[in-house]
Design a protein that fits this description.
The protein has five helices and no strands. By secondary structure, it is mainly α. It has two domains: 88 residues, no CATH class; 48 residues. α1 packs parallel to α4.
Length: 138
């Protein structure tokens, strides 16, 4: 076996590697991605468009996992979706509301009909009483 125990015969460098620049570069890149994601989420909110991760990955140029793993972006995304849900009803919610409207309108009309029928019966009784009074006077 060659000197130093390595098969290739190369000696291991005694110098420690400095990873700080690489770590700092990765940290800056992560912050830039985070800022791009925040800006895109804000712009989608202002435009009134639906916020979905598939669109954000294309617009920001980051992976889907970035939106799930980065806690700051995930929190902002959740808040934006909640805000959007409060402002703009989802298509399913809107469909349920529309479907409920006719039944609600029918219920209200049925209530109105019942009220009018009662009122009509009361008025008929009053009319009969007034007719009887007129007949008695004659």
């Amino acid at each position: 076996m060659p000197q130093g125990g390595y098969r290739s015969g190369r000696r291991r460098s005694m110098r420690k590697r400095n990873y700080r620049p690489m770590v700092e570069r990765n940290r800056r890149a992560g912050k830039e991605k985070e800022e791009r994601a925040k800006q895109m989420i804000d712009s989608l909110l202002k435009a009134g468009e639906k916020i979905c991760i598939a669109d954000l990955t294309e617009l920001c140029g980051v992976s889907r996992s970035f939106f799930y793993k980065n806690e700051t972006v995930r929190r902002i995304l959740t808040e934006a979706r909640q805000l959007q849900q409060d402002l703009v009803p989802s298509p399913k919610r809107e469909a349920k509301r529309r479907q409920a409207m006719p039944s609600r309108a029918l219920f209200e009309k049925d209530c109105e009909i019942a009220r009018l029928e009662k009122e009509n019966a009361v008025l008929k009784k009053k009319l009969e009483k007034s007719d009887l009074k007129l007949l008695k006077k004659l």
